[in-house]
Amino acid sequence: MLTELVHRAGVHDARDFSVHFVCGGLSACAATLAVHPVDVLRTRFAAQGEPKVYKTLRDAVITMYRTEGSLVFYKGLTPTLIAIFPYAGFQFSFYNSLKHMYEWVMPAEGKTNGNFKNLLCGSGAGVISKTLTYPLDLFKKRLQVRGFEQARITFGQVRSYEGLLDCARQVLREEGTQGFFKGLSPSLLKAALSTGFVFFWYELFCNLFHHMKKADSWP
């Protein structure tokens, strides 16, 4: 929608890398504001040890609200927004750039095998985007379990962070620069598959609806 608005305004070329970056980033931020509480709940469930602190989703919502207040559902929001804007922006920008590159390298293939092109370019965009923004994703997850340290004692050493900058400083001091990329490999695999299939199905359904619309309008 944002890309379409830019195209209609005629201020910038809607195909520019920067336009896809900004529009993709803003769209992701708007979506994040709506679903962030669910992401916090997911992180808490995954982070708890034994015995479990939260037995059900309803129990988690009630317990978190009573013990930590309503703002608990937006813990880690700042690093999430800081991370999601470039991550989503890079996804759309690199996806568009990789598609143009694919069509330039293999012009015939780009026209006849569109589904494979969309899957491959989407996967590539996901891997590049995740690599560039992974440290911010790491900070986000660590900040989301702040105030939840007791439930993680069974995992070994438990760290406490005051905020985004404190988290970055502690990771650098205690774990070195490699600490910023802990868990990168499985995250890249997930990013390649999820982003690739998102763009694959997105383009597939867009083409499907386009052909259905053309068929309905045919006299």
Q: Mind explaining what this structure looks like?
A:
The radius of gyration is 21 Å and the shape is globular. It has eight helices and no strands. By secondary structure, the chain is mostly helical.
Order of helices and strands: HHHHHHHH
User: Which percent range fits the helix content?
Assistant: over 70%
Uncertain ranges: none
User: Which of globular, elongated, flat, extended, rod-shaped describes the shape?
Assistant: globular
Mean pLDDT: 82
Oligomer state equals single chain
C-alpha Rg (nearest Å): 21 Å
List keywords for this structure.
219 residues, mainly alpha
Secondary structure blueprint with pairings:
Layout: H1 2-9, H2 17-47, H3 57-68, H4 77-105, H5 107-112, H6 114-144, H7 164-175, H8 184-217
Summarize it.
It is built from eight helices and no strands. It is mostly helical.
